[in-house]
Amino acid sequence: MKEIAVDQLKPGQRYSRPIYIDADSLFVPEGVAIKERDIERLRKWDVTVLRTEGEPISDDPQAAFNAFFLRAFNSPTQRGITRMYGALKDRLMECFGRIRNKESVEQDAVNRVVDELVKLIEASPNDVVQYMLYGMQGETGEVENALNTAVFSAMVGQKMQISRHHLLTLVTAAVLHDIGMVRVPEEILAKKSALTEDERRQVQTHPVHSYKIITKDLSYGEEVGRAALQHQERWDGAGYPRRLKGDAICLEARIISVADSFVAMVSHKPYRTSMIGYTAMRNLLSDNGTRFDPAVLKVFIQVLGIYPIGSIVLLSDSSVCRVLENRSNAPLKPIVKTIIDRDGHEYIDDNGAVIDLAEDKSVFIARAVDANSLADKHRSR
Question: Which residue has better confidence, 218 or 332?
Fold first, then answer.
């Protein structure tokens, strides 16, 4: 646990995990603001140090939801995923920063991220997806998008039973597919209004830059570079940079294309809110063979389900649940766990009832729910 000096505490501060005076004495629960009288009480008791596994959180909606989320995502395995994902993000951010500054990056640094990410997915695929889709990341940037695209790409590759060598090629390409964006002028990437035709052409050069960085600067083989180069090609031939069509696009690029699009839809950006997983999945289903390989898209839907793991759903009895597991033979009837029951009782410690909607015919999913709306309710209590 980390130590917090009492003389550094300020009224109104909140943390993402409980704060303890000692091993058996709780000071404040996660997400609860510290009051002036609480600090005075510590001083009166001559307590100088507190301990917590959490981090300070602010009053922004995403931070409040993170505290709410951690109350459910708190098994030892899940906490390990939170730590591991954070560590991978920091290491990849360093790699991307060095590439942006045109400094040398060892291929091994990227390989270690890829290897550990694959091991994490193989050990706990459902928990990793829940972490990404259940709101733990706030505003997402290039590194989070790279890791998330790699996770979904890997899961599709595993479902398609591609060889280990090709799986690692796929995940490496997915991690690096957008690295060429570091060569696009920052003022274009940060622009919130519509791009000019010239600016759009500059953005569309990023797969070529990705290919050059991957094959030249990082010394990866042609198969990794080709997957990044082709990830913006379309099944109908209307993509870029070479307007390839159908099977002329390599399989790895076709997988990354679907994963990348889904991640873009469910990621929160400074200039727009994210889609919920169900809506993003419906958008993919409406593609009709224009942008995506229908066979890859079918596998993607089998892997994630119509209601992806971690999605929040409202049942017909007004209870709110989190999707735990999907079935490919019953995509509208996943296994869910109750977060808020029909009487409004909130399950703080993830001990709500588990409901198999394929077996329990008394309830059904009425609609998907934006997970961040739960944070609003949580803050208002």
Answer: 218
Are 73 and 131 in contact by the 8 Å Cβ rule? The answer is: yes
Distance CA(138)–CA(140), nearest Å, equals: 6
For residues 369 and 266, state if they share a domain. Answer: no
Alpha helices in the chain (DSSP H): 36-44, 61-72, 76-100, 107-123, 125-133, 142-159, 164-176, 186-189, 197-203, 206-212, 222-229, 251-266, 277-285, 294-304, 371-380
Query: Helix and strand tally (H, E) in the chain?
Result: 15, 11
Please give the residue range of the domain that contains residue 360: 312-380
Find residue 4's DSSP bridge partners. 50
Retrieve residue 302's tokens: 């089998």
34 shares its domain with 161: no
Q: Is the pLDDT of residue 354 over 90?
A: yes
Cα end-to-end distance, the chain, whole Å: 28
Residue 211 maps to which CATH number?
A: 1.10.3210.10
Is the dihedral angle over the CA atoms 361, 367, 368, 374 positive or is it negative? negative
Does residue 7 have a pLDDT over 60? yes
For residues 332 and 245, state if they share a domain.
Answer: no
* 255-290 pLDDT tens trace: 999 999 999 888 766 555 567 888 889 899 999 889
Instruction: Identify the three-state secondary structure at position 360.
Output: coil
With 0-12 / 13-18 / 19 or more C-beta atoms within 10 angstroms meaning exposed / middle / buried, residue 194 is: exposed
**For residue range 159-178, what is the model confidence (pLDDT) as tens digits?**
999 999 999 999 999 999 99
Q: Highest-confidence range of 97-101, 109-113, 281-285, 376-380, by mean pLDDT?
A: 109-113
**Considering the entire predicted model, what is its pTM?**
0.78
User: How many domains does the chain contain in total?
Assistant: 3
In three-state form (DSSP H/G/I as H, E/B as E, the rest C), the secondary structure along 213-231 is HHHHHCCCCHHHHHHHHCC
187 token code pair: 């003022």
Q: 213 burial class (0-12, 13-18, 19+ CB within 10 angstroms)?
A: buried
The residue written with tokens 């727009």 in the block is 272
